[in-house]
Amino acid sequence: MKERLQELQTEALAKVTESSTLSDLQDIRVAYLGKKGPITEVLRGMGKLSPEERPVIGELANKVREAIANELDSKKAKLEAEELEKKLEKETIDVTLPGRPVQVGGPHLLTSIVEEIEDLFIGMGFEIREGPEVETDYYNFEALNLPKGHPARDMQDSFYITEELLMRTHTSPVQARTMGQFNGSQPVKMICPGKVYRRDTDDATHSHQFTQVEGLYVDKDVRMSDLKGVLNRFAKQMFGEDREIRLRPSFFPFTEPSVEMDISCKVCNGEGCSVCKGTGWIEILGGGMVHPRVLEMAGYDPKEYSGFAFGMGPERIAMLKYGVDDIRHFYTNDVRFLKQYHKA
Ligand code: DAH
After folding, report:
1. pLDDT > 80? residue 343
2. Which residue's CA is minimally distant from atom 2 of ligand 1?
3. Separation of alpha carbons 59 and 53, rounded Å
4. Hey, which of 168, 172, 224, 247 would you mutate to test ligand 1's pocket, going by the most ligand atoms within 8 Å of its Cβ?
5. Model-level pTM?
6. What is the pLDDT of residues 248-305, one digit of tens each?
7. pLDDT tens, residue by residue, 190-204
8. CATH code reported for the domain at 110-339
9. What is the mean pLDDT of residues 222-230?
10. What distance in angstroms lies between residue 168's CA and the mean position of ligand 1's atoms?
């Protein structure tokens, strides 16, 4: 039995030395030290031994087992260390390689233009207001002096949701909402940027959804000259101090009198060219003095209060300012287009 144990030890240790993987080691451990292994078997046969021999063989068996286990452990540690070494070598990072460039985004051109408009009017004491895109017929039309059946409603083909609800066709309802909220109790000086919707066929200059910025200033003794002064400042700051403005008579149901504002063409300096269609002027926005009916409906006494209002399209402003030739560029979001307007 002694010899058998020593043989097993020699045999096992030789196998450990030969082994080269962790799974080999596990196999050896199971084969020699497992419950069904030869050492366990030897121990089971100890009953046949004389009482003197028993402790001697027992001790030897334990020693053999310990020797094999120790050898397995130290080989395991060695293999693990080698494996880790290999892994580290494989995963070494070359810190001298150039890094991958990180793509940095930027605000959309429309966002930048709207923010520029906002900053400009905040600088003149206007506050920013918002209103719902799903609007009632009342605020979108009636409160702006466009009763049901009014022919001017056709100027703005609408997406109706129900008889009384529609996608707002302009940001002008926010005028009526803001005034209505104060109900004649205080002056109002606000602009409202936002999305608007019209049943238009999309082409280079039309989009079924676009952006507007509405402006409203209601106070005691607000005059047309105030409108002209504010719009003149806006035009010069947005398009350049050398731009001139002119107001032309026009018609909107919610203003009386109504005007359209042009700026002198930058391309030809007012001489007339293809951009301004030979007129030397480019139309920018509509506005006028708030109609007394509109003031009245919102709770403002037109004998006490007067006001001006205007509405503009940031897409059109961006197109003129940056020479964008198709309104659809704002919505198709081709990064090659958008990237040109990211400020560094
Ligand atoms: N709401 C008009 C439109 O969408 C634009 C406009 C014109 C707004 C004159 C105004 C205004 O506030 O006074 O065509």
Report:
1. no
2. 311
3. 10
4. 172
5. 0.73
6. 999 999 999 999 999 999 889 889 998 889 999 999 999 999 999 999 999 999 999 9
7. 999 999 999 999 999
8. 3.30.930.10
9. 98
10. 13
Q: Which atom of ligand 1 is nearest to the CA of 196?
A: 4
> To the nearest whole percent, how much of the chain has pLDDT over 90?
63
- SS3 track for the chain: CHHHHHHHHHHHHHHHHHCCCHHHHHHHHHHHHCCCCHHHHHHHHHHHCCCCHHHHHHHHHHHHHHHHHHHHHHHHHHHHHHHHHHHHHHCCCCCCCCCCCCCCCCCCHHHHHHHHHHHHHHCCCCEECCCCCEEEHHHHCHHHCCCCCCHHHHHCCCCECCCCEEECCCCCHHHHHHHHHHCCCCCEEEEEEEEEECCCCCCCCCCCEEEEEEEEEEECCCCHHHHHHHHHHHHHHHHCCCCCEEEEEEEECCEEEEEEEEEECCCCCCCCCCCCCCCCEEEEEEEEEECHHHHHHCCCCCCCCEEEEEEECHHHHHHHHHCCCCCCHHHHCCHHHHHCCCCC
Checking if the pLDDT of 344 tops 80, the result is: no
Mean per-residue pLDDT of the chain: 92
* 287 pocket-lining for ligand 1 (C-beta < 6 Å): yes
